[in-house]
Design a protein that fits this description.
Shape: elongated
Number of strands: 0
Largest sheet: none
Helix content: 55-70%
Order of helices and strands: HHHHHH
Structural class: mainly alpha
Length: 138
């Protein structure tokens, strides 16, 4: 089947998504549904496949569906500044998450190390640490 006459199943498979994902994208207006004649299946073209692949790649970079909708609005190449702002905000979010993960890694490494140094019938330093901080909020 060529790219100009794909069924929804073929489109989904080529894009690496589920058929229900394609239908959902129709409902939320991320992917236009091609017209269909009475009683016939919809047929998708290469543009639909390209758009689905765009959506998937943007999701892999951490963009939400709402943000992807904005990126799609900006995809006419006249909105580079707006696209840059959105990507910069996403980068800052990713950098904050990485910093949080590093702090978690450091704390867990210390707890695991403390657990390895303890022996005998004394309590578990990991459990003790969690109990000692039960009133604090992250």
């Amino acid at each position: 089947m060529d790219a100009a006459h794909m069924t929804i199943g073929t489109l989904a498979q080529r894009a690496g998504v589920n058929v229900e994902t394609v239908r959902y994208y129709h409902r939320i207006k991320l992917l236009p549904a091609p017209p269909r004649a009475h009683g016939e299946r919809r047929h998708y073209g290469a543009a639909s496949l390209q758009r689905l692949r765009f959506i998937r790649r943007a999701q892999q970079l951490g963009f939400s569906l709402e943000e992807i909708a904005h990126l799609l609005e900006f995809s006419d190449s006249r909105h580079c500044a707006e696209t840059r702002v959105l990507a910069t905000e996403k980068l800052e979010t990713v950098e904050r998450k990485i910093a949080d993960l590093r702090a978690m890694q450091k704390a867990l490494t210390g707890l695991v190390s403390a657990c390895g140094r303890r022996s005998g019938a004394r309590g578990c330093p990991i459990i003790e640490s969690l109990e000692a901080n039960e009133g604090e909020h992250a």
